[in-house]
Design brief:
It is built from 25 helices and no strands. By secondary structure, it is mainly α. The longest helix is centred in the middle third of the chain and has 30 residues, at 248-277. The chain is elongated, with a radius of gyration of 29 Å. The relative contact order is 0.06.
Length: 490
């Protein structure tokens, strides 16, 4: 006589799996039992969830995604199935599918971790403002979780809001004061804020907590290079080259930065000669020898500005907002371009009255060495305006000449401020996470993309103000120089 089949409870397969692993230590045996249970219970999500979690723990994300999908198909209102599917899709770099899965899960339950993971997926798709909203929702639901505040800080940093990013990261540190990753993120925020001493301190603190924090080590090295403490920065980067093999990203970043540093040091004598001779001519032959590896383009940036050239109405609206010379007092008109440039670059923070500055500039007799950097800003602007009337822009087809032209003006305007690395392209962006984060064009592509913009896109703008504005925004957007191009663009 055949015994009656016993119906297992929904959690029975999970218990069987745990029992098999505990008694036998044989994961494959347990998985076999679980698959058998899934066959016996075709409408239950439980066995598939257990299989998926096992795959996920072993890094088998393709298999995990398939098993989570099976669980969701059998019990569509089982939120953990959709959450797990979203996590697996994130690991597989399928961001849109991850967003869809997390969206379904959040429709079933308001979960802080799902909101946090949704923020990561949205950021991966370039939807950073939406990612910030999701991350803030996550932190509001579970304010005791440091990782959620850290993600808010990371996204605020990505959106160019460093003071708010620092505040969010301090909230994270209140719950995890010795988290090296959060300390590294805080260092990045302070760096973007211009508070370099605090930035350096946070990178060093991260390394004190975890000497193997690769991102903090590379960030400290590049930060020291930006501060012109080249020997210290170089040593940090050489230390990064000695990191274990699994830190391939950090080792690669250190190698790239050191190569760029060597090239920029090669250029420095020619830049100094160009400033002394008040001409970019000496830079051109050196730049024509630029290593081919640094001449790669960023196609997306070229396409962006080609679209801008095709729709000039937006540029015309911007140009219409520029100050008009006739609105300037007559006595100031001759020197107005230099003064306007100075005050525009310090908009909102300048405390010196325009007329007082004009009077001081007209009566100035001291040497540059006796002046404050703030006063020399104005002197350098005036010098640049005078030189601009004497020098002709290069042929747009000559890429090296255009790069020399841009570097020359940056050096001319900032030569009195050594920390700005006059005429030198920014070597590296800081890392906010364990992987390189580049907010703008990757540094090694700046020179090639800059030349491409002027040789391929610049001629597409209508001559006159629109072409000038197009060049202005091209250089500003590339953000290739240490000071963020504020002086160069003017």
């Amino acid at each position: 006589m055949r015994a009656a089949r016993v119906r297992l409870p929904d959690d029975g397969p999970i218990l069987l799996l745990r029992l098999a692993e505990t008694r036998c230590g044989n994961g494959e045996f347990a998985a076999t039992n679980l698959r058998r249970a899934a066959t016996l219970m075709p409408r239950s999500a439980g066995p598939w969830l257990a299989l998926a979690r096992r795959d996920e723990a072993q890094g088998k994300f393709d298999a995990a995604a398939g098993h989570y999908a099976q669980a969701a198909q059998r019990q569509p209102r089982r939120a953990p199935a959709w959450s797990g599917l979203g996590r697996a899709m994130l690991q597989l770099h399928r961001a849109q599918e991850a967003v869809d899965a997390f969206g379904t899960a959040l429709g079933l339950r308001d979960d802080a971790v799902d909101w946090g993971n949704l923020a990561i997926a949205l950021e991966a798709m370039g939807r950073t403002p939406e990612a910030l909203s999701a991350a803030q929702r996550a932190a509001s639901l579970a304010p005791e979780l440091a990782a959620l505040h850290a993600n808010v800080g990371h996204l605020l940093y990505r959106l160019g809001r460093p003071p708010e990013a620092a505040a969010a990261l301090h909230r994270a540190l209140a719950f995890a004061p010795r988290a090296a990753d959060v300390l590294n993120k805080l260092g990045c925020a302070y760096c973007a804020w211009g508070r370099h001493d605090e930035s350096e301190a946070r990178f060093r603190e991260a390394l004190a907590v975890d000497p193997a924090c690769a991102a903090a080590l590379v960030n400290l090295g590049t930060q020291l290079l930006h501060l012109r403490r080249t020997a210290e920065g170089r040593q940090c980067l050489h230390d990064a080259l000695a990191l274990p093999p699994h830190e391939a990203d950090a080792r690669g970043e250190a190698t790239r930065v050191l190569a760029m540093l060597e090239w920029e040091e090669t250029l420095q004598p020619s830049i100094a000669a160009a400033v002394l001779n008040e001409s970019p001519a000496s830079l051109v032959p050196v730049l024509e020898l630029t290593p081919s590896a640094r001449m790669s383009l960023e196609p997306g940036r070229l396409a962006q500005f080609a679209r801008l050239a095709q729709g000039e109405s937006a540029l015309r609206a911007i140009v219409a907002g520029f100050p008009r010379l006739e609105s300037v007092p007559k006595a100031a008109a001759e020197r107005w371009p230099a003064i306007e440039a100075h005050f525009a670059s310090h908009r909102g923070s300048a405390s010196v009255d325009v007329h007082q500055t004009l009077t001081w500039l007209a009566r100035r007799t001291q040497s540059d060495a006796s002046e404050t950097p703030e006063n020399l800003d104005v002197v350098r602007y005036e010098r640049a305006v005078r030189l601009a009337a004497q020098l002709n822009p290069p042929d747009p087809e000559h890429g090296a000449a255009w790069e020399a032209w841009i570097r020359f003006w940056h050096a001319t305007l900032t030569w009195h401020r050594p920390r700005l690395a006059s005429g030198l392209i920014k070597i590296s962006s800081t890392w906010m996470t364990a992987r390189p984060l580049v907010r703008w064009t990757p540094p090694e592509q700046v020179a090639g993309t800059l030349r491409g913009l002027f040789t391929e896109v610049y001629p597409q703008f209508s001559p006159g103000p629109c072409r000038a504005a197009g060049a202005y925004f091209a250089v500003l957007e590339l953000h290739g120089f240490v000071d963020g191009n504020g002086r160069l663009a003017r």
